[in-house]
Amino acid sequence: MNTTQKIVFEEELPSRLDVFISKNIANLSRSRVQDLIADGEVTIDGSIVKKNSFILDRTGQLISVNIPSPKPIDIHPERLPINIIFENDDVIVINKQAGMVMHPSAGHNSGTLVNAALGYTEFIAGIGGKQRPGIVHRLDRDTSGVVLVAKNDNAHQWLQKQFKDRETEKHYIALVDRHPPTLNGKIEAPIYRDPNNRKKMAVAPSGKGKKAITIFHTKEKHSRHSLLDVQILTGRTHQIRVHLASIGSPVTGDTVYGYATPTVDINRHFLHAKTLGIRLPGETTMRYFTADIPEELIYVIRNLGSKGECNGV
């Protein structure tokens, strides 16, 4: 059953339409609000408005938001193996395997994390979007490690807000070719869509792109590789891969931003989302979830040679 929420603009300062609605209607994330606006479900003083950035600037403007019941999604649940680290009434924390796409898209209609999550629990259907139900954040296809799936709209909004406000703590393990210029460092370089290849990202010229910050610490230094702990303070597409490649140390096995032929025996890039710190719905203390490193990556480290040992990863 559809529901309609009505709110009146009474603020002193102008506000974007999508921002105002998400602030004043509980359980609606900004991305969900933007979908509703695009679908013509939002009116201002009786007129449909389809522009997210519409500026509310008159006291007394009446905003009506029609919230349709969740539509059945045409994504088929699949009983695929998933490694669950933690679960409660609000969230499922999963150690995603490399090679698994996060959600259905062109060329990937099945075998995704969403298919697997729906096969595990159909309660996530309709949460957060039709094609990405329950998905809070994403990892690249060949990146393994910690991902969150929300089990209700309240949890989805609560968790996504922390990612948006950069209140989470994200640590990755990366093996890179060669050695970074310094053992430890901070990369601050904006990232944008590569104008020469729309499937890739790149470090942007000054004044362009989105802010991106990556911090790395060398854990082990081998003859031709370095094992790094990488923390990202922003969450741009391909951020770690682009940033490390930009300093001359691409992620090992990354045939997009690094060498066309991997420098070790590996069929994926060596990047693993090891630890995620986040506050669960209703909690004030950050929890930390850790995903075990896959055996194929442990094998690579152990076969790098005599320099360095696989300690503390």
Characterise the protein shown here.
With 313 residues, the chain is of the alpha+beta class. It has 3 domains: 3-67, Structural Genomics Hypothetical 15.5 Kd Protein In mrcA-pckA Intergenic Region, Chain A; 83-160, 2-Layer Sandwich (Pseudouridine synthase), CATH 3.30.2350; 169-302, Pseudouridine synthase. Helix content is 17%, strand content 28%. Helix 1 packs across helix 2.
What topology emerges from the helices and strands here?
Blueprint: E1 3-8, E2 15-16, H1 17-24, H2 30-38, E3 42-44, E4 47-48, E5 55-56, E6 62-67, E7 83-87, E8 91-96, H3 113-120, E9 144-150, H4 153-164, E10 169-177, E11 184-188, E12 191-193, E13 201-203, E14 213-221, E15 225-232, H5 239-246, E16 271-278, E17 287-290, H6 295-302
Parallel strand pairs: 9-16
Antiparallel strand pairs: 1-6, 2-5, 3-4, 3-6, 7-8, 8-9, 10-15, 10-16, 11-14, 12-13, 14-15, 16-17
Outline of this structure?
This protein has 313 residues and is an alpha+beta fold.
> Would you identify the CATH H-level superfamily of the largest domain?
Pseudouridine synthase
- Strand proportion: 25-35%
Indicate the CATH topology of the largest domain: Pseudouridine synthase
Please tell me what the overall shape is.
globular
Largest sheet: 9 strands, mixed
Q: What fraction, in percent, of the residue positions are helical? A: 10-25%
Name the helix and strand elements from N-terminus to C-terminus, one letter apiece. Answer: EEHHEEEEEEHEHEEEEEEHEEH
CATH class of the largest domain: Alpha Beta
What's the helix count?
A: 6
Please name the CATH architecture of the largest domain.
Answer: 2-Layer Sandwich
Radius of gyration: 22 Å
- The averaged pLDDT comes out at 90
Low-confidence residue ranges: 306-312
Overall number of structural domains: 3
How widely separated are the two ends?
A: 50 Å
